[in-house]
């Protein structure tokens, strides 16, 4: 049978009890730190999405709109269009049957 100590009986100078208490305390501190820091992948993903969303709305808010920047032709010269040449008659219309 393996050695099992009585959990009811605590010996104050016992090294095993002291080591178990330290291990339990360290495990509890580690658990509390893990809950408090919330480190992981999800906070990084949320931060990136938040920055992308804010950047998109800032870009659309500060970008020029069509109503604010109308196109004008005040300083441009009119485009000259050459007249189109008359179309040549189709070759099937010129052939005569004998």
Textual characterization of the structure:
Helices cover 50% and strands 0% of the residues. The protein is mainly alpha-helical and 98 residues long. It has a domain at 10-62.
The best one-word shape is: rod-shaped
Number of helices: 3
The radius of gyration is: 43 Å
Mean pLDDT: 76
Beta-strand residue fraction: under 5%
Largest sheet: none
How far is the first residue's CA from the last residue's CA?
125 Å
Structural class by sheet pairing and helices: mainly alpha
* Strand and helix order: HHH
Helical content, roughly? 40-55%
Q: How many strands in all?
A: 0
Low-pLDDT runs of 5+ residues are none
Short description:
The protein is mainly alpha-helical and 98 residues long. It has helices at 15-37, 41-62, 91-94.
SSE order and pairing:
Layout: H1 15-37, H2 41-62, H3 91-94
Task: Offer a few descriptive terms.
single chain, 98 residues, mainly alpha, rod-shaped
């Amino acid at each position: 049978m393996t050695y099992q100590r009585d959990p009811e009986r605590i010996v104050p100078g016992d090294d095993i009890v002291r080591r178990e208490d330290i291990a339990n305390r360290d495990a509890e501190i580690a658990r509390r730190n893990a809950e408090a820091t919330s480190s992981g992948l999800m906070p990084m993903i949320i931060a990136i999405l938040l920055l992308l969303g804010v950047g998109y709305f800032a870009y659309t808010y500060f970008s020029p709109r069509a109503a604010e920047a109308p196109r004008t032709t005040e300083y441009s010269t009119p485009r000259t269009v050459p007249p189109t040449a008359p179309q040549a008659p189709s070759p099937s219309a010129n052939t005569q049957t004998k």
